[in-house]
Write a structure and sequence with these properties.
heterodimer; A: 99 residues; mainly alpha; B: 261 residues; Four Helix Bundle (Hemerythrin (Met), subunit A)
Amino acid sequence: MGSEYWLYLSMILFTVGSLVVLLRRNAIIVFMGVELMLNAANLAFVALARQNGSLDGQVVALFVMLVAAAEVVIGLAIIMAIYRTRRSASVDDANLLKY
Amino acid sequence: MGSGEAWLFWILAPLMTVAALGLLVVRKAVHAALSMAVVMVALGGVYVVLGAPFLGVVQVFVYTGAVMMLFLFVLMLIGVDASDSLVETIRGQRLAAVLAGLGFAVLLVAVASRVALGEPAGLAGANAEYGGNITGLAALIFSRFFWAFELTGALLVTAALGAMVLAHRERLGPRPTQRSISEARLREGKRITPLPNPGVYARHNSVDTPALLPDGTPSELSVSRVLTARGQARSNSDLVDDVPEIVREIDPGHRGTGGRD
């Protein structure tokens, strides 16, 4: 049993995250799918850092966490701003740019 | 990889997969947030096992502690009942998305299965260079990755400012005063007084108990609309049902059915 198992787990999580983004309609759940994909990438970074015997992967994972935190703050603020004007958190209802 | 790690993998990996799938299938956003929290806490444990104790702690603090709480706050602000619409706005989108996701997974696994990784090198050497995992990370962050570190700092400050700008609401009209609110209420002519209190009885005084009007009927206004909508408000007949019990307590030999008091 080596790092491959963790990599496979990371792939499963990433795929599920992308499916969540594609299939769900609630903007907050879509956002959680994005977070899941970031976490899956982090898992791959950490597993490969140990595989290569170098701390670089862990530092990159730390930076991914920082960027994800910033992204969550802005994304949730945007969702709230949209909700305030359109009274809906569904990604289908934000359709003013359609056509 | 020791057998302890294998044990952890076979326990945590199915758990995380199921929780991640829960994100895909549950109806309520709160449940999705909870399963997301499960995935994140489990990932924190995985990081510790993979030789990244600092990242494991940060994962629990930042993701489970801060990010998920932020998610829950926003969920509460915009309403827990904001559930998904099941209408397919683009025809065939769902099937296409599932196919694309599965194809993506097959692609990833096919690529990964052709790579021979061999035994992990382990982090003992990398950690020993600066005397530990955390000091090693710090040395890297403040030397080679210093520029990236500064940039993420700027990014976080910008994000905080951006969130404040986005969450700020410009007040368009004057702030309503107590006088203007009461005048508006009088002008509408709907209800001027406060709503009645819930009923207070010898055995029941909670908020789900309606007060009785002079003619004996329960007052709907005295119970929160939310409780009534959920069916959690106590009905009038519940109060009457207590009467035989009360009679029995007062007089154990009494065999009557009891009446309204």
